[in-house]
Design a protein that fits this description.
Number of helices of chain A: 0
Number of strands of chain B: 11
Order of helices and strands of chain B: EEEEEEEEEEE
Oligomer: heterodimer
Strand content of chain A: over 45%
Shape of chain B: globular
Distance between the termini of chain A: 36 Å
Order of helices and strands of chain A: EEEEEEEEEEE
Radius of gyration of chain B: 14 Å
Shape of chain A: globular
Helix content of chain A: under 10%
Helix content of chain B: under 10%
Largest sheet of chain B: 6 strands, mixed
Structural class of chain B: mainly beta
Largest sheet of chain A: 7 strands, mixed
Distance between the termini of chain B: 41 Å
Largest interface: A-B, 28 and 23 residues
Radius of gyration of chain A: 14 Å
Number of helices of chain B: 0
Chain lengths: ~120, ~120
Amino acid sequence: DTEVTQTPKHLVMGMTNKKSLKCEQHMGHRAMYWYKQKAKKPPELMFVYSYEKLSINESVPSRFSPECPNSSLLNLHLHALQPEDSALYLCASSHTPGTGRPGFGYTFGSGTRLTVV
Amino acid sequence: GENVEQHPSTLSVQEGDSAVIKCTYSDSASNYFPWYKQELGKRPQLIIDIRSNVGEKKDQRIAVTLNKTAKHFSLHITETQPEDSAVYFCAASPRSSGSARQLTFGSGTQLTVLP
C-alpha cells in the first residue's frame, strides 16, 4: 500500500458543529502532517507528528485539534470553525530521514474539501 | 523560518517547447528541494527532488538544478505536452527534526501547454 487515505472527501459543517477529519497510511511512515490549502495557494503546514507525538504546531487556532492515536492514523478534530477556515485539508506522511528512501517517501492524501457555513 | 519565492506565477508555452520555473530560498540550512505537480482538484504529486549535495538531477523530460551559493533552484521541462498543464510548486526543507520533514512551499506556477 503506497497511499495516504483521507476521509471524508467533502465536508460541509456549520459554525457550531464538531467534526473530525481522518487520515490513514500503511507505509510504515513515522512522520505525519496536516496542511491547509486555500484555492490557488500553496499548502501551508499546520501540524507535524513525529513518532505519534506532536512536534510542531504552526500557531494554529485551538478550534483545530490534532490527534495521532497510533502510527497509522492521524485525526483533525474541528470545533467552532469560521467560514474563512473553508479550504482543502491535506494529510501527508514521510519516511524517517536516514533510511535512504528517495524523496523521504513524502506522500499527500487526496484531501478533504471543507466548507464552513 | 524558511521563505521560498517562485517565478513566474503563470507560464504559457507551445507544445514541444521547454518550460523553466525558478525558486529562491532564504534558509541556508535547507537541504532538500522537491517539486510538486498539482492538477485541478487533485493532490500534490512529487515529480522530482534534489538534495543539497547534488547540483543537477534529471528524470526523462524533467530536470532540476540547484545553486546553493545563490540559494536558488529551477525546474526544467523539455518537449512539453498538454498533459503537463498544471500548477507546479517548489518547496524547501531544512534539516530534519527527529523523523519529520517540514516543507515550505513556493507560491506556485500555473503552466499551460498550448496544443
